[in-house]
Amino acid sequence: MRAVTLYNSLLTFQSNVAEPIPKHGEVLVDVTLAGVCETDLQLCKGYMGFSGIIGHEFVGVARSGRFAGQRVVGEINCVCQECRWCRQGSGTHCPSRSVLGILNRDGVFADVVALPECNLHAVPDSVPNDQAVFTEPLAAALQIIQQVDLTQKKVVVLGDGRLGMLCAQAVRLMTGSVLVVGKHPEKIARFQKLGIPIELLSDLSREPAFDVVVDCTGSSSGLEVASSIVLPLGTIVLKTTVAGNHSMSLAKLVIDEVTVIGSRCGPFKKALVSLEAQAFDLDGLISHRFPIERFADAMQTAVDPAAFKVVFDLSK
């Protein structure tokens, strides 16, 4: 099969990689679309020290099991189902988990991927592939409103990229006061079309003004900006994972008694319900499509400010 592999921070396309052999309880899925996200870009910079096939956002068709022949998406954490965390419903923190295309498990920048059948979810017939491929990041965005009470809170989303777009829409479900701050006028225009207030980072006052700050910047500088604008007793939600280190004083967070919450994976079922109900506007978010053979062009495009969502089309 075709696949894009990462070894020693070097991406390589290979045309004759052996298909995965499914373990007990696993199902092979033929990948149709695979999305490039910020985590993939950070993996290429050494984040998590991952080696193997990268990619974790996808929609495909299951070959066997109860979803055989159906379009599916898949949760990325593959867990033991026996430990304390799994038993209490927090399997995303299973200490022995593997994570699709991120930790000890080959991902979806390939023709075929193996996943536990329990990780798979059928895609509703009314949801096209171009929307289904957003299920994983949409679930991650919805995780915010499960972790933080946003009712009557003044919220700002830092970051005008792919995740910022989904997080802003998720936050708007719970509060009427949300601002998006970004660096790129061409990306910010997308938020304006949705009626979401925007502001350029260069114009942002670095004074405490927000109850909740959601960092979707994909940069180690995001936390520093967030800490400067969060109100005392406020909350910072960290969606950003980066290969680099944060270097800032934490004194303000202590003095102002700021709550800092890490926010990662979220509810796939709610994401699919939201997609079926058309609760999120995803129109035109895919800006570029590439065959997997053009992986280098795809990854380069993904870091271009003019691009938004880049996907691999593996259907051909």
Structure description:
With 316 residues, the chain is of the alpha/beta class. It folds into two domains: 3-134 and 282-313, Medium-chain alcohol dehydrogenases, catalytic domain (Quinone Oxidoreductase, Chain A, domain 1, Alpha-Beta Complex), CATH 3.90.180; 141-262, 3-Layer(aba) Sandwich (Rossmann fold). The protein contains ten helices and 18 strands. It has helices at residues 38-43, 84-87, 129-132, 135-147, 162-172, 185-193, 222-229, 251-255, 268-276, 295-302; strands at residues 3-7, 10-14, 26-36, 52-53, 57-62, 71-74, 77-78, 98-99, 112-116, 120-122, 155-158, 178-182, 198-200, 210-215, 230-238, 259-262, 286-290, 309-313. Strands 3, 5, 6, 9, 10, 17 and 18 form a seven-stranded mixed beta sheet that branches. Strands 13-12-11-14-15-16 form a six-stranded parallel beta sheet, sandwiched between helices. The protein has a three-stranded antiparallel beta sheet with strand order 2-1-4, with no helix packed on it. The longest helix is centred in the middle third of the chain and has 13 residues, at 135-147. The protein is globular, with a radius of gyration of 19 Å. The mean pLDDT is 94.
Key terms:
316 residues; Quinone Oxidoreductase, Chain A, domain 1; Rossmann fold; 2 domains; 18 strands; globular
Low-confidence stretches: none
Write the H/E string, N to C: EEEHEEEEHEEEHHEHEHEEHEHEHEHE
Distance between the termini: 12 Å
Determine Rg (CA atoms, Å). 19 Å
* Counted beta strands: 18
* Domain tally: 2
A few lines on this structure:
With 316 residues, this protein is α/β, with parallel strands linked by helices. The protein has ten helices and 18 strands.
